[in-house]
What does this fold into?
Amino acid sequence: MRRISYSGASFLTADAIADALFQLVTALGISQTTESLNLPAINVAGKPIMVKLIVGPMSELISVPEDSLWDEPNITEVIAVLRDRVLALQQPKPSPAYAEIATTDFDSSDFNSSDTGRTS
It folds into this structure.
């Protein structure tokens, strides 16, 4: 299991959740966005809980291994969601389609002094 420290608090979660969380935060740097997450964790009494947090490209996380007497929380659904989100963020974004720039069929030699209001 891994203890994740974030914003002055910490929680104990499965290794795979910690790994996916770090991958997500790294991928968020690509899109410069934040995500609201609910992650499975274990409280100090060994009971499964959900931890709610907001992470972004500037999130400062620390993950350290920790021995635990308790079983890991159920992570199947959350891992799939986190991995899908990481993959989506890592996909190259299509370049914006630029519209053609409208031009006219004349150039500056088509003007004479009477057209511009100037006199010679």
Notes: The chain has a mean pLDDT of 85.
